[in-house]
Amino acid sequence: MTSPGLAQKPEPQQSPKLQQPLLVATRVIPPFVIPNKGELSGFSIDLWRSIAKQIGVESKFIEYSTVPELLSAIKDSKANLGISAISITAERQQNFDFSLPIFAGGLQIMVRNAETNDSAFPNILQLFFSTSLLQVIGVALVLIVVAAHIIWLSERHHKDGMIPKSYFPGIFKACWWAAATLATQADEMPKGVLGRLVGIVWMFIGVLFAAYFTASATTSLTVQQLQGDIRSIDDLPGKVVATTAGSTAATYLREHKISVLEVSKIEQAYNALQTKKADAVVFDAPVLLFYTANEGKGKVQIVGSILREESYGIILPNNSPYRKPINQALLNLKENGTYQSLYDKWFDAEKS
C-alpha cells in the first residue's frame, strides 16, 4: 500500500517549462550591453546568463535600437522579457511587470571638457550677459541717477558750476560726470561745497565698484575656464541637451522646460556634444561614467550630482510566470556573491 506521507509530499517548485528558448529583448548600451564580434557582453548580459542558469532555461537575445521598440516588443509578445538599462518607473509599471532592482543608478550631466573650448571669447560674452553682471549694472545705473540729481541740485546755482542750470541738458551732464567718476575717469570736479563732498564720497564708491567688478569678472572667467558654463541642472535652461528618445532622461528634461535633442542611440548624443550641436548630454550616470573613462576620456567630463535616482530592472509582461523565478534567482546571486563579482567586473573604478 502507498504511504499517506509519500502521497502528500509536495512537488518541488520549478520554473515554467518552455518549448523553445526564452526570447530576451535588449539594446546596446555600454557597459550594460556591449557588442563584441557578433556576441553580446556587458553587465546586464552576464547577469541574465547567470539568472538563466539558476532557473534552468535556454534563452536567445533579440536586439532593439531604442527603449520604445524594446517595450513594444514585450507588449506585443515578440519577447518574453527585456534586460539592459531599463529604469523602473510608475508609468511603465502600469503596463509591465518588473523584477527586483538589478542596479541602482540615476541621471547625470555630461559636458565637453573646458580645455577643448576654442577660445575664451564665448565665456567673455556670457559673462557680460550673465544675470549677476546685469544686476550690478542695474544697481550702478540707479546710483548714477541719484548722484547726478544731487550734483545737479548743488551745482546749478553756483556761478562757476560745471552743470548747466536748466534740467535739460544739465541732468545729462550730471549723469555723464557720475558715470565717469564711478569708472574713476572723472576730469572735472564740482565747485560747490556740497558738490565736492558728494564728489569725494562718489570717488571712493567708484574705486570700490571698480575693484568689485574686476574681482567678480576674474572669478567668473576662472570658474568658467575650469568648469565650463554648465555645472548643474540650473544651468541647463536655454541650452540644447541631447539624450535618447523615449528615455526617462528625455521626460525629466521636458518636465523642467529644457530644450531636448532626442536621438535614437546614445552614441548619437555623444556625437552631437562633440560637434557642438548640443551643449550637454543628460543620461544614466553609469553609462556616462563608462564613456567618460573610456572613449570620451579627455574630451568630456561629468558635472553636478545625480539629478534623479533610478533603479534598473528586468521588464516582463504583466502577470508573467517568470517574475517569481527571476526574483528568486536574483536573491540567490546576491547572497552567493555572484552579483558582486559581476558588479566588480564591469564597474570597478580602477579597471574603468
Automatic annotation (TrEMBL):
Coiled coil: none annotated. Keywords: Glycoprotein, Ion channel, Ion transport, Membrane, Receptor, Transmembrane, Transmembrane helix, Transport. It comes from the Bacteria. This is Transporter substrate-binding domain-containing protein. Pfam families: Lig_chan, SBP_bac_3. The chain crosses the membrane at residues 133-154, 193-215. The keyword Glycoprotein applies. InterPro entries: Ionotropic_Glu_rcpt (IPR015683), Iontro_rcpt_C (IPR001320), Solute-binding_3/MltF_N (IPR001638). Residues 21-350 form the Solute-binding protein family 3/N-terminal domain. The keyword Cell inner membrane does not apply. Residues 21-349 form the Ionotropic glutamate receptor C-terminal domain. It is found in: Membrane. CDD domains: PBP2_GluR0. It is a multi-pass membrane protein.
